[in-house]
């Protein structure tokens, strides 16, 4: 055995002793760990823990006099934040011994995971049930083109390990559910809510209340962001204290429909990483009892002082109804009126009779054989502007009633195209007065065919019903919308 | 007297503006704030009960009454859930 080997052993023993001291110190301060203790976290943090036989060995190394337990490699790697006046070795040591669970490896989770891995958080948990899609990557920058189709937690873990091989990265490929939430949250020191839907947000907050873990909550949509730390300390409020009533489903815009500027979740997720670093290291002032609201289109950050937690809160109040024992039975879908939807398409609905619906292939045939047919596209302007069928009338469903006149005018004009001139004037008059169903004198021709299309075939059904309510009763819905068109008729049609 | 109103996230879309001035009678309290807001921006009703109001960057609890003064800043903050 060479001298260097013995030196290495001595060094490891010293580290182990230092870690044990830190462990004892933390245990005496916070109580013994419930499940995975900091020593196990440290095993992934670059230090090799032996079986405890070396606990009595005093540190012989002159460079380890302060009990911070950092290795030479760790000191080199994290030196720029260690030399930071307000941070130092003790704060870095706490980071290396700490653990964070990031729920959602998407737009918020991407930068959060990268920064926390880089900063040396000893154990990182990454939870996501989805796979990477090409449309994710503009904001979910932890993933690459090569990871399209790969599980997001796996792809994110790969990137974190590439950035820092000395930390422990754990993947959770299942969804967070009322059944597993409390047990998962208990395994980590700090929880990051990087999820994308309201029911999951309430679930995470409740689980953090029940498990007594601080929650760094970030959210982003469009060009807006929000950030705060919930369930922190004795008096920090939880998500329910602030929003006891779940938002109406219509107000929970999702990235897939409403869009999101990629850098916006990037900023909020980065701030979440910062809050987690502050909580673990004990440095700085966590954003507890303050809500940061960002209108990033305007470049405006607005910080609102929040109240202490509400004594009446059902999750964190003085007599909570939601506890670790009762949480698994709580129905989050019923409470929020929405399923824990991800970035995927909404379920196709059947809202109007089948006889008022045709397939995209039928639409193609009819448009070819009916020169006077009118096609109404009810998608939002941003989607219509990506690509639409020639001659489509644009009438966004969001403000559909404002577009009824334009549809009437197009029907009238089409009646003129498709019919002989003398009958056209009578038909036009009839439609302008009361809609297409009104027969003036028995000679009025049937109105021009009317087809309604949207992105996937739900809003277009609602629009057909709205047309009927407005007196235009012959509208026909195109099942599956423009996505169906792209699948069945024209695979070159851009989808998004 | 005028108070300044900031609209965030969905409330900005519904109000059609990110910032507005709301005219209130002198001596009005925060109790007058919400009805006046809804009158001027009826689309905000779509938010239902799910939003937070702040007054001069401090959380305003539902039902809490404070006397307003000219130049006060109110923010309408609905939760967002995307990520």
Automatic annotation (TrEMBL), chain A:
ATP binds at residues 107, 128, 152, 196-197. Pathway: tRNA modification; 5-methoxycarbonylmethyl-2-thiouridine-tRNA biosynthesis; Cofactor biosynthesis; molybdopterin biosynthesis. Residues 369-494 form the Rhodanese domain. The keyword RNA-binding does not apply. The active site is at residues 255, 454. Binds 1 zinc ion per subunit. GO terms for biological process: Mo-molybdopterin cofactor biosynthetic process; tRNA wobble position uridine thiolation. Its EC number is 2.7.7.80, 2.8.1.11. GO terms for cellular component: cytosol. Gene3D superfamilies: NAD(P)-binding Rossmann-like Domain, Rhodanese-like domain. It catalyses: [molybdopterin-synthase sulfur-carrier protein]-C-terminal Gly-Gly + ATP + H(+) = [molybdopterin-synthase sulfur-carrier protein]-C-terminal Gly-Gly-AMP + diphosphate; [molybdopterin-synthase sulfur-carrier protein]-C-terminal Gly-Gly-AMP + S-sulfanyl-L-cysteinyl-[cysteine desulfurase] + AH2 = [molybdopterin-synthase sulfur-carrier protein]-C-terminal-Gly-aminoethanethioate + L-cysteinyl-[cysteine desulfurase] + A + AMP + 2 H(+). Keywords: ATP-binding, Coiled coil, Cytoplasm, Metal-binding, Molybdenum cofactor biosynthesis, Multifunctional enzyme, Nucleotide-binding, Nucleotidyltransferase, Transferase, tRNA processing, Zinc. The keyword Transferase applies. InterPro entries: MOCS3/Uba4, Rhodanese-like_dom, Rhodanese-like_dom_sf, ThiF/MoeB/HesA, ThiF_NAD_FAD-bd, Ubiquitin-activating_enz. Its cofactor is Zn(2+). Zn(2+) binds at residues 238, 241, 313, 316. Residues 420-450 are annotated as: Disordered. It is found in: Cytoplasm, Cytosol. One of its GO terms (molecular function) is thiosulfate-cyanide sulfurtransferase activity. It comes from the Eukaryota. Residues 2-29 form a coiled coil. In the N-terminal section; belongs to the HesA/MoeB/ThiF family. UBA4 subfamily. Plays a central role in 2-thiolation of mcm(5)S(2)U at tRNA wobble positions of cytosolic tRNA(Lys), tRNA(Glu) and tRNA(Gln). Also essential during biosynthesis of the molybdenum cofactor. Acts by mediating the C-terminal thiocarboxylation of sulfur carriers URM1 and MOCS2A. Its N-terminus first activates URM1 and MOCS2A as acyl-adenylates (-COAMP), then the persulfide sulfur on the catalytic cysteine is transferred to URM1 and MOCS2A to form thiocarboxylation (-COSH) of their C-terminus. This is Adenylyltransferase and sulfurtransferase MOCS3. It comes from Micractinium conductrix.
From TrEMBL, chain B:
It comes from the Eukaryota. The keyword DNA-binding does not apply. Pathway: Cofactor biosynthesis; molybdopterin biosynthesis. GO terms for cellular component: molybdopterin adenylyltransferase complex. Keywords: Molybdenum cofactor biosynthesis, Nucleotide-binding. InterPro entries: Beta-grasp_dom_sf, MOCS2A, Mopterin_synth/thiamin_S_b, ThiS/MoaD-like. Coiled coil: none annotated. One of its GO terms (biological process) is Mo-molybdopterin cofactor biosynthetic process. This is Molybdopterin synthase sulfur carrier subunit. The lineage of its organism: Eukaryota, Viridiplantae, Chlorophyta, core chlorophytes, Trebouxiophyceae. The gene is g370.
């Amino acid at each position: 055995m060479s001298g260097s080997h013995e030196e290495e052993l001595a060094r490891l023993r010293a580290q182990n002793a230092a870690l044990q001291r830190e462990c004892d110190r933390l245990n005496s301060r916070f109580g013994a760990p419930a499940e995975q203790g900091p020593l196990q976290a440290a095993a992934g943090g670059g230090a090799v823990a032996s079986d405890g036989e070396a606990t009595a060995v005093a540190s012989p190394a002159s460079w380890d006099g302060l009990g911070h337990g950092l290795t030479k490699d760790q000191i080199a790697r994290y030196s720029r934040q260690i030399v930071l006046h307000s941070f130092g070795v003790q704060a870095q040591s706490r980071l290396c011994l700490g653990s964070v669970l990031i729920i959602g490896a998407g737009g918020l989770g991407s930068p959060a995971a990268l920064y926390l891995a880089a900063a040396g958080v000893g154990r990182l948990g990454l939870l996501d049930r989805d796979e990477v899609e090409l449309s994710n990557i503009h904001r979910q920058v932890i993933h690459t083109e090569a990871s399209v189709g790969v599980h997001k937690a796996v792809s994110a873990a790969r990137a974190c390990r590439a950035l820092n091989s000395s930390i422990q990265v754990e993947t959770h490929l299942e969804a967070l559910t009322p059944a597993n939430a409390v047990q998962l949250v208990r395994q980590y020191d700090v929880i990051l809510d990087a999820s994308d839907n309201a029911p999951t947000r309430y679930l995470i907050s409740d689980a953090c209340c029940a498990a007594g873990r601080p929650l760094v909550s970030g959210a982003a949509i469009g060009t807006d962001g929000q950030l705060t730390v919930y369930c922190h300390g004795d008096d920090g409020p939880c998500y329910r204290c602030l929003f006891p009533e779940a938002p109406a489903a219509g107000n929970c815009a999702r990235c897939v429909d409403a869009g999101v500027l990629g850098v916006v979740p990037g900023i909020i997720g980065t701030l979440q990483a910062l809050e987690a670093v502050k909580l673990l290291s004990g440095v700085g002032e966590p954003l507890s009892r303050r809500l940061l609201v960002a209108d990033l289109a305007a470049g405006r950050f607005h910080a609102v002082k929040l109240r202490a937690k509400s004594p009446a809160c059902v999750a964190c109040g003085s007599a909570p109804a939601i506890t670790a024992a009762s949480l698994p039975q709580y129905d989050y879908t019923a409470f929020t009126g929405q399923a824990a939807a991800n970035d995927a398409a909404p379920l196709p609905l059947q809202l109007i009779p089948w006889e008022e619906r045709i397939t995209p292939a039928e639409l193609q045939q009819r448009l070819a054989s009916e020169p006077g047919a009118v096609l109404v596209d009810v998608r939002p302007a941003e989607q219509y502007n990506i690509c639409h069928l020639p001659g489509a009338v644009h009438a966004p469903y969001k403000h559909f009633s404002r577009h009824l006149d334009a549809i009437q005018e197009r029907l009238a004009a089409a009646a003129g195209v498709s019919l002989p001139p003398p009958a056209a004037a009578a038909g036009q008059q009839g439609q302008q007065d009361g809609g297409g169903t009104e027969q003036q004198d028995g000679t009025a021709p049937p109105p021009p065919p009317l087809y309604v299309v949207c992105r996937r075939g739900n809003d277009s059904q609602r629009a057909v019903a709205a047309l009927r309510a407005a007196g235009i009763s012959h509208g026909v819905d195109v099942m599956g919308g423009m996505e169906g068109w792209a699948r069945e008729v024209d695979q070159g049609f851009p989808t998004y | 007297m005028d108070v300044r109103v900031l609209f965030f996230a969905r409330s900005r879309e519904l109000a059609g503006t990110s910032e507005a001035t709301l005219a209130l009678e002198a001596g009005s309290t925060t109790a007058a704030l919400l009805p006046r807001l809804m009158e001027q921006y009826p689309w905000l009703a779509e938010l239902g009960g799910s939003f937070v109001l702040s007054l001069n960057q401090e959380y305003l609890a539902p039902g809490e009454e404070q006397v307003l003064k000219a130049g006060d800043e109110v923010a309408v903050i609905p939760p967002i859930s995307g990520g």
